[in-house]
Each structure stands twice: as C-alpha cells, then as structure tokens.
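For the sake of transparency, this paper describes our internal protein records without simplification. The remainder of this section carries one protein's record, kept here as part of the documentation:
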Amino acid sequence: MVELNANWVKTNAEGYRDMADKLMSEDDHQALVFEWARANAAKWPELEVLHAVPNGGKRCVATAARLKRTGTLAGVCDIHLPVPRGQYASLWIELKAGKNRPTKEQLWFIGKMNGYGNLAAVAYGHREAIGMIEDCLRGSKIG
C-alpha cells in the first residue's frame, strides 16, 4: 500500500543532491522528470499518462483572463499521474526548484487533493519527484 511519508512535504531544499541540482530551473527539473518517464514507459506503462499541467508562468492580462474564464485554476500541481495505487486515486506533484516554496494556493490544492483521496505533495527537484513516482508505481511507502 502507498503511504504518505512526512518527508514529502519539506520546508527547505534538503532534497537536492548537489549544487548543480540546486541551480537548475524548475522547467529543467520538470523536463528531466519527463525524459525519465519516457525512458521508463516500457517498464511502467502507466507513465504514458503522466502529464504536466501548464498552469504557471507570466502572461499578459488578456491571456490570464481568458485562461481563468475557461477553467484554469490557480495552485494546481505541476505533475499528475492519474493512476490509482493502494488507497489513492492518483498522484499529484508540485515541483519546486532552488529556494522556491509552495504558494498558499498550491498548498490549498494539495490539501484538497489529499482530502479527496489522492496523494499530493511537494518535490524539491527532479530526483525527489522521480523517487515519488517510482515509489507510487511500486506501491511502496513514499519518501
């Protein structure tokens, strides 16, 4: 059974292995997660449905208004694996890089997802995110 491990929701960037990881952008970390997923889809076919949620970024006022009008929700996690494991309906990962921390909207979304039977957490860097995905797919304790 997959269990939420307290180490998943960290308050600092202890998940980084070295300075190079710490200096990478969030986009770079996320790209590495998806490169890993593509390389491991034969082992875990569930990775074929792993996807990113393009929710963040700087936008002009008109684009932001259109996105909000068409259903974009602030705080949605960056990565979603819509595959049930154990008692959880799916896995949501909010990916952070450097000294970035989750916003109040992201923490709200993570809390809602956990409350609705999903497993949602913050990962600091690609290595931690990949570890969470692997643990989830194995059905083992996360973290």
Remarks:
- The first strand starts at residue 51 and ends at 52.
- Confidence is low (pLDDT under 50) at residues 1-14.
- The radius of gyration is 15 Å.
